[in-house]
Amino acid sequence: MSADANSIFTDNERRDADLQSDKFFDVAKYPTLSFKSFYFKKTKAANTYFVKGNLTMHGVTKPVALTVVAKTGVNPMSKKSIAGFKITGKLKRSDFGIGSGVPTAIVSDEILIDCNAEFIKK
């Protein structure tokens, strides 16, 4: 997976500009975030998987662990088959050199990952 760092959107233009600046993500220098999994295993919980992979952000690549809950079904609006995923995890921004000059009293070092994705079968 990859994401355009310029797509940061918090519904606050000043905060978005700050996050995109060289104080945090430095999107001019590091325009892309990427994740490539190398381990995927079903857990004992229903529809739940444990995923490990390398996250590259701000020019730094580090392994991260994620929990993925997957469900399939039919979208009630489009009537098309879908697969939905809830992805959660944690990381430290300091591990990636993001916001190194910003005290943790202002912005936490621990970042919670909370992602929802839906894919439609063609």
Give a structural overview.
With 122 residues, the protein is mostly beta strands. It has one domain (2-120): Lipid/polyisoprenoid-binding, YceI-like (Lipocalin). The chain contains one helix and six strands. Strands 1-2-3-4-5-6 form a six-stranded antiparallel beta sheet, with no helix packed on it. The two termini are 20 Å apart.
Explain briefly what this protein structure is.
The protein is mostly beta strands and 122 residues long. The chain is built from 1 helix and 6 strands; from the N terminus they run βαβββββ.
Under CATH at level 1, the class stands as Mainly Beta
CATH domain fold name: Lipocalin
CATH superfamily: Lipid/polyisoprenoid-binding, YceI-like
Strand content: over 45%
Query: Which residue ranges are poorly predicted, with pLDDT under 50 across at least 5 consecutive positions?
Result: none
- CATH hierarchy: architecture: Beta Barrel
Q: How many helix segments?
A: 1
Distance between the termini: 20 Å
- Count of beta strands: 6
What's the number of domains? 1
Structure class: mainly beta
> What sort of overall outline do the alpha carbons produce when their principal axes are compared?
globular
Q: Output mean pLDDT.
A: 94
- Share of residues in helices: under 10%
**Main beta-sheet annotation:** 6 strands, antiparallel
Rg value: 17 Å
Query: Helix-strand pattern, N to C?
Result: EHEEEEE
Strand order of the largest sheet: 1-2-3-4-5-6
List the helices and strands and how they pair.
Blueprint: E1 2-4, H1 13-20, E2 32-42, E3 48-57, E4 60-74, E5 81-92, E6 110-120
Antiparallel strand pairs: 1-2, 2-3, 3-4, 4-5, 5-6
